[in-house]
């Protein structure tokens, strides 16, 4: 057996047919029910040292939602598009929802928390990052909101 020198190709092979780990798939942004054959966007991750990927969440495949992903150092992460399939176990008479035909949109390797948006990705948007706002320094807050007589701020002064 020949091993691939492309780690992303090996990852995609592992991510094809990965279980969505739910009996009732829904978009985790808007709550829309999802069914076999529906296009989806999925967040998959694998912590450093872990052998397998897991699906963290799924979203509508119409890509109407921003990718609310904050990436983590030490975790290999993907934002992928694909569709829902099913895998049946005839012995247990059970069906599992799986992820099919993954296409990479965003990658974040374990060595950084920075995302890499793939230029040929089927989505034009960047993932969103919540703004990292610094707290207002106490002295600045006091200067901006205090009155000279020590009372509360006047109506309309803010």
Helix-strand sequence: HEEEEEEH
Total strands: 6
Main sheet summary: 6 strands, antiparallel
Structural class by helix and strand composition: mainly beta
* Rg result: 22 Å
**Gap between N and C termini, in Å?**
69 Å
How many helices? The count is 2
Taken from the alpha-carbon principal axes, the silhouette is globular
User: What is the residue-averaged pLDDT?
Assistant: 77
Strand content: 25-35%
Low-pLDDT runs: none
What is the topology?
Blueprint: H1 7-15, E1 18-19, E2 39-47, E3 54-60, E4 75-89, E5 94-108, E6 116-117, H2 138-145
Antiparallel strand pairs: 1-5, 2-3, 2-4, 4-5, 5-6
Keywords summarizing the entry:
158 residues; 2 helices; mainly beta; 32% strand; 6-stranded antiparallel beta sheet; 11% helix; globular
Describe it for me?
It is a single chain. The chain is globular and about 60 Å long. Strands 1, 2, 3, 4, 5 and 6 form a six-stranded antiparallel β-sheet that branches. The protein is built from two helices and six strands; from the N terminus they run αββββββα. With 158 residues, it is mainly beta. The model has no long low-confidence stretch (mean pLDDT 77). Helices cover 11% and strands 32% of the residues. β5 and β6 form a beta hairpin.
